[in-house]
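ingest -> validate -> predict -> emit
validate: passed (alphabet ok, no gaps, 163 aa)
predict: started
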Amino acid sequence: MRISIYTTGGSIDKYYDTQKSAFLVGEPAVGWVLAESNISVDFTVFPICRKDSLEITDADRMKLREQIAGDPVDRIMVTHGTDSMIETARFLMDLPGKVIVVTGSMQPATFRYSDAPFNVGCAFGALQVLPPGVYLAMNGRVFDPRTVVKNVQSNRFDLIAGN
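emit:
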């Protein structure tokens, strides 16, 4: 089994730049997060962009979609900022024959108490057992992007009421 991982930036890849006194999107963190977890499944990381998810455009989503559609690998992880990951997941929904899991984190992977390693691990495991389709893996759950919402007050993702 082989897994392709596409990165777009977001909090998972952010770091604090002391000279600018600001958080910036850096290199993709998912590779070292998985390496530290001693993952034995082959994976390749493909950076698409390095943006805060509020800056992701439909052109970025189209580039991501085209890369995934042309990838011979059928198991795909996308790391993404949490503010627009649902929109991106929905944008990818009609790609046939692929298992696509979108994940990210509320805190940068470089933070000591980040949710990044857990979310990435959850997504990585889910990729290996889910049927074709598009999913979100956050906060220990796997969601259908049509029935999930980011709950800003509780700092997690929840099902939309009634689902």
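The chain has a mean pLDDT of 95.
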